[in-house]
Each structure stands twice: as structure tokens, then as C-alpha cells.
Inverse folding.
């Protein structure tokens, strides 16, 4: 039995707790600073709850005592301290951050990890699964020309002008829309502007747009910087969304007043559990002397699990982090220090009891997960 401290009882935290508890292999303590959030955790023998302030180092240290694993499903700003306490207590650390600076802080902490202790940030959908599939496709080439990663969490039934509903962390969403975007262009690492690079495409006859957002590449710029000519990540939305967001963030300068922007979004844009997640990755390069393109496309929908409705973003994000936790426990990941998403074996991931949630969304055109030439 593996003892886990799960920090955060929000939309994603509840799903993580449920996934781990139902296996019978994990004992999970879910900690949060809000009793109302903890009250929504489904009670069972494998889960208990703890009222905890994640900014209190002493309280974190007590909560992590005798825990093998700590998972942060909190906003990225809490994670550097959590990682420091994990190092002190000997727990392996996992989080869902998309924030570049937070990942670098965790990476610095990981340098002092002891044998058997790993630090693995960015374990969600993007970065996370999309990095795993991008690296899986990239390994099938003799040399790389371009890696293009596109991901979106969208409402199934958009009704407002933004054609969007809140499905995950508002802090994370604003971060993506406002921060510089790492990319590789013509073999050089550069920062691109968020909300730029607008493009349009179709999947199954439906039209979408995609544009630059921050954080989705994870650590792939570090991994592929001397191997690829072009590497970029863009967020998928319905047509017209980018222009309205650019008006709010740039023209009204709400990108410089992020707490106000968060308040506006959370009071005006409703949450939905009727959503879909789209992942679309395309890699181009040389293979056996020929220019070849491989792609992987998936659509994953919200669905009921054991009588409760769960959103697609909850399922995909929780499945990704639970899969890598499971793989760590099984000895299928590097055993010490900082672990990147692209070090995860795709075959091991997709066969994992949690990773299998991604199989149902695979486009039939790409049935072998190796793409189509």
C-alpha cells in the first residue's frame, strides 16, 4: 500500500483521489485549505481528508511525514515550497503545473534528491501527455524538422461569445494567455508572444483555431533544442475566441491586472462538465532518406464514471498524473532526481490502468499510435 498526500480538493484533485482510491493500492490523504472543498471528496476506506494551509511549511512537513508520494493539484504558486518540503521529508513529488518558472524551481530542488526520490512536474494534459506523445513520434525519425503540438479543452455546447466555459484552473488559464511562449524557430530557442501565431484547421469537419500559449511545451525545448528546426505549442479554441481574449488582455490591459481578470472570468463564465479534450500532434522529419510526417489526433469526451459525471479535462488530467505515479511505484521511470515527461515510455503509459483513458479518444486514422505517413 502506497501512502499519498494529495494537495488540492478542487475539480482535478477530486478525480485524482477517486482514481487512486479505487485501485486498492493507494491510501490517499486529501488536503485543502477549504472545508467546503474537502466536503466534496467522496468518502471511502482509502481516502481521508485534512484541513491544511499549503503556505505553512511546518504544517506541510507534518502532513508529509511517512508519505511516500506528494501530489500537488494546487495552483502553481504553491509548488516551490511543496517541493522543498518533499525533499526534506523524502517524498517523491508530482504536480500539474504549466508555469515555466515553477518547473525550473522544482528542477533546482531535485538536484538534491536521494535514491528512490523523484521530482516530476508538469504531469497533466499539456504539458504532460502531449509531451509523451510528441517524444514517442519523434523517436521514429532519423532526423527532425518540426514538432507541432496542439491541445484544447472545449465546451461541447458553447453558448457565449467566447465559445468557452471554465473547465480547469483559472490561474493556469490566465498564465497561459499572458506569459511568453517558449519555442524553437529555425533551430534557435526564442520567446514568442502569447495569443499570436493564429491558425485555422479542421478535425472531423469541425473548424477550430489555435494560437500561442505559454507552458505547453514543458521541458521539450531543453530536450530537443539541438535536434529540431521548429518546435511549437498552441492552444485549440473555437473560431473567434482568440480575438475576444486579446481584446480583454491587451486592449483593456487586464493582462496586467490578473486578479481582476480572474474575478471577471469566474463571475461571468460558467463551469461546465460537458466538455471535450482535443490533442493533435504532428512531427515531420527524415526517415530512411524520405521526408515523412507522422500524426496523432484524439478527442476525449466527458462521461459518467460510477454514476457521477466527470469532465474530459478532469479525466485526462487526472489520468495522466495517476499513470506516472503508478509507473514510478512500479519502477518504470528513472529512480532519482528530476524526471521529464518525455522520459516516459509511451507504450508503458498507454497500457497503464490510468493511461488507458487516452485510448478511447484516439482518432481511428491513427490506430497504432505511430501516426500515418
Amino acid at each position: 500500500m502506497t501512502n499519498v498526500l494529495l494537495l488540492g480538493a478542487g475539480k482535478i484533485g477530486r478525480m485524482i483521489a477517486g482514481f487512486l482510491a479505487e485501485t486498492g493500492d493507494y491510501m490517499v490523504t486529501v488536503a485543502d485549505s477549504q472545508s467546503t472543498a474537502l466536503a466534496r471528496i467522496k468518502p471511502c476506506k482509502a481516502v481521508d481528508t485534512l484541513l491544511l494551509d499549503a503556505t505553512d511549511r511546518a504544517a506541510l512537513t507534518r502532513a508529509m511525514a511517512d508519505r511516500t508520494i506528494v501530489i500537488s493539484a494546487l495552483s502553481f504558486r504553491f509548488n516551490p515550497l511543496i517541493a522543498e518540503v518533499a525533499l526534506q521529508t523524502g517524498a517523491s513529488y508530482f504536480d500539474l503545473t504549466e508555469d515555466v518558472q515553477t518547473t525550473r524551481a522544482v528542477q533546482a530542488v531535485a538536484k538534491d534528491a536521494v535514491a528512490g526520490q523523484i521530482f516530476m512536474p508538469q504531469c497533466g494534459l499539456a504539458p504532460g501527455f502531449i509531451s509523451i506523445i510528441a517524444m514517442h513520434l519523434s523517436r521514429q525519425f532519423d532526423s527532425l524538422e518540426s514538432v507541432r503540438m496542439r491541445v484544447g479543452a472545449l465546451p461541447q455546447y458553447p453558448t457565449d461569445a467566447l465559445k468557452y466555459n471554465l473547465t480547469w484552473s483559472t490561474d493556469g488559464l490566465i498564465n497561459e494567455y499572458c506569459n511568453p511562449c517558449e519555442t524553437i524557430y529555425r533551430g534557435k530557442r526564442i520567446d514568442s508572444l502569447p495569443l499570436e501565431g493564429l491558425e485555422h484547421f479542421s478535425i472531423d469537419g469541425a473548424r477550430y483555431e489555435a494560437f500561442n500559449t505559454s507552458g505547453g511545451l514543458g521541458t521539450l525545448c531543453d530536450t530537443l533544442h539541438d535536434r529540431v528546426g521548429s518546435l511549437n505549442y498552441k492552444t485549440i479554441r473555437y473560431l473567434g475566441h482568440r480575438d475576444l481574449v486579446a481584446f480583454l488582455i491587451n486592449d483593456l490591459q487586464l493582462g496586467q491586472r490578473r486578479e481582476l481578470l480572474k474575478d471577471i472570468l469566474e463571475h461571468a463564465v460558467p463551469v461546465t462538465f460537458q466538455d471535450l479534450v482535443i490533442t493533435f500532434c504532428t512531427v515531420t522529419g527524415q526517415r530512411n532518406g524520405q521526408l515523412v510526417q507522422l500524426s496523432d489526433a484524439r478527442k476525449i469526451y466527458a462521461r459518467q464514471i460510477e454514476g457521477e459525471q466527470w469532465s474530459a479535462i478532469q479525466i485526462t488530467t487526472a489520468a495522466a498524473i495517476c499513470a506516472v505515479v503508478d509507473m514510478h511505484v512500479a519502477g518504470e521511470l528513472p529512480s532519482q532526481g528530476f524526471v521529464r515527461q518525455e522520459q516516459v515510455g509511451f507504450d508503458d503509459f498507454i497500457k497503464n490502468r490510468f493511461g488507458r483513458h487516452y485510448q478511447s479518444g484516439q482518432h481511428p486514422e491513427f490506430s497504432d499510435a505511430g501516426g500515418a505517413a
